[in-house]
Design goal:
Structural class: alpha+beta
CATH topology: Deoxyribonuclease I, Chain A
Number of domains: 1
CATH class: Alpha Beta
Number of strands: 18
CATH architecture: 4-Layer Sandwich
């Protein structure tokens, strides 16, 4: 059935004219934690970059930086290609130092040839890392963007990444995407309220967008540093495990079924975790494909991105293990969601 469906899909809006007998167009949305994409320049206002300098503990060099850019661009250039030859319409990214590294990434092939654009705002994060948004302007039209500051009432001095809201048009419809990188799990259970507060902020942003225009669809994506079944996602945000559970005005966690089947986007002590989530608004669900509808989700984890041997066999192949350069990719695999619409 899947093979038959693929014959009737137009894999990107820009290719529609080439397939006159098709009935559906497919679109992909991705998220990828790039794991410490820092440049080699010392920013005196950002002590978080000290480890990633030539004289730092990682001995971070321009050669390694260029190899990291090439590796990241190679992965992003391969995302969703089996379904969408034009690649994803949008990619949320995290663990990037500044605008410079996002610009350098988009100027690295094959992304440069894809004509990708980006949106970035500096965050007040203690580690000096931000989130950003990369998009294909042929598939996604940006209307506006705004960073939302994370404020913890019980600790106003706590600093972490902003949540980036991007409003745009996908497949002729209003779609808003919220890119996240929630506070880490450092401190164990004591860190849970930090992510609960982040979930409250994400829900407030998404609810506000839909209240202003009920036809507006919303995707909450990011490295949430929690699994789909954890309280921040399942309770505070209220993202459901199944589409049937999702009620009007609610949210479906498109990556929870993957997690329930033992699929992870990273591993901790040999246990698969799925922190890199995509959560979608109720109005993406349904069978009527005259409007843009959710189809499926996946963790992108091809063999070349996996560690080949040793105790971390099967884990994401990282740039560093301890302080040793591996010339890999990231400690996370990307996630992708797919959407269909009748032509």
């Amino acid at each position: 059935m899947k093979k038959l469906l693929l014959f009737v899909i137009v894999f990107a809006a820009s290719l529609c004219a080439q397939a006159q007998n098709t009935r559906l167009a497919a679109y992909a949305i991705a998220f990828y934690n790039l794991e410490n994409l820092f440049d080699t320049v010392d920013d005196p206002n950002n002590t978080g970059d000290d480890d990633f300098l030539p004289n730092g503990p990682y001995h971070w060099t321009e050669t390694q930086y260029q190899e990291k850019l090439n590796n990241m661009a190679n992965v992003i250039g391969k995302l969703a290609r089996e379904v969408c030859p034009g690649g994803p319409a949008c990619i949320g990214i995290s663990e990037i130092e500044n605008e410079t590294v996002v610009r350098d990434l988009c100027n690295t092939e094959p992304l440069k040839s894809m004509g990708l654009k980006y949106i970035h705002y500096d965050s007040p994060d203690r580690r000096g890392i931000d989130v950003a948004f990369i998009y294909n302007p042929r598939l996604f039209t940006v209307k506006s963007s705004v960073p939302y500051k994370y404020v913890l009432p019980t600790n106003p001095t706590f600093k972490t990444r902003d949540q980036l809201l991007v409003n745009g048009i996908l497949a002729g419809e209003p779609v808003s995407i919220i890119v996240n990188h929630w506070p880490s799990r450092y401190g164990g259970g004591e860190s849970n309220p930090l992510r609960a507060a982040a979930a409250e902020l994400s829900k407030h942003i998404a609810d506000s967008v839909i209240a202003a225009n009920p036809a507006n669809k919303v995707i909450i994506m990011g490295d949430l540093n929690d699994d789909p079944s954890d309280e921040s996602c399942a309770k505070v945000l209220g993202a459901t495990k199944s589409q049937k559970e999702c009620k009007p005005g609610g949210y479906f966690n498109a990556t929870w079924p993957l997690f329930a089947n033992g699929v992870g986007s990273l591993y901790y002590q040999d246990v698969p975790c799925l922190y890199d989530q995509q959560i979608i608004s109720y109005n993406f669900l349904g069978k009527d494909r005259k409007t843009l509808r959710y189809w499926k989700a996946e963790v992108f984890n091809p063999e070349f991105m996996r560690t080949k041997s040793g105790k971390r066999k099967g884990y994401p192949l990282r740039s560093f293990v301890d302080n040793t350069w591996q010339n890999g990719y990231s400690d996370h695999f990307p996630t992708i969601t797919y959407y269909l619409k009748e032509l």
